[in-house]
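Hey all, sorry for the wall of text incoming. These are the two entities for the joint prediction.
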Amino acid sequence: MSTSIERPRRLPGDLAMWWFILAELAVFGILLMAFAVAQHVHQTMFHSGKALLDGRWGMWLTVALITSGLFAALALQSMRKGRRIQSVIGLISAFFSASVYVVLKLQEYGHLLDLGLDIERNIFFTLYWIVTGFHFLHVLLGMVILLLLALGCALGRFDGDESSLESGILYWHMVDLVWVLLFPLIYVLP
Amino acid sequence: MMYPLIVCWLLLMILTQAGIDIIQRYPAAWILILTMAAFKGWLIIDCFMELHRAPRRWRYLLLSWPTIMAFGIGAFIGW
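and here's what came out:
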């Protein structure tokens, strides 16, 4: 006879958000595969293109995004414990950590444009700008969502029902999830 | 409750830095880098997205995304 009681399994957030996340992952999946296929076809071009990217940018971009994800997850836990102020601080910290990503990414984009490596340079940079630019737009949307969640949290909108908060934070983690595959493909792999 | 998240974050940081260090020393270790990337995806799904307590089908569906991506990318790089 078992003495432990298994907690019921529960899908966090709204079901609609999960369908949205699956759709987004499918789109990003196609983009990542397109990049991998093009890399296979144009190996020399992609090798020299990646040599022009600085891996240190990628590392710090990853640190900023993952740290932002940690703050968002901590904010959700605080809200569940009824610590509203801590939750607001967590969400604002997540926003500022994401801002570091945005600043770094804009600097990287500026550096590449200064070198004349724009979207029309070659197939590598066309795909680089499309894939990272599409992800960048998701980061910007996620930051707006983080701000709205912080505001809602401060006004007590999620007291007793964290489902909307969970959904917003899930979107942010989806942005993280895409990045951990995008980062090695574009910056790390030879 | 807070500690698993911080451990997860630490693991993600260590794996990211380790990936860069490994590929600089051993460029042929791309399979390891992709495996680490898939593992990082699983960490985000189970720890940050809290799918370790979600219905199994949803969890496996999400866990399959980084796995398929890593296999797909690896297939074209290794081909």
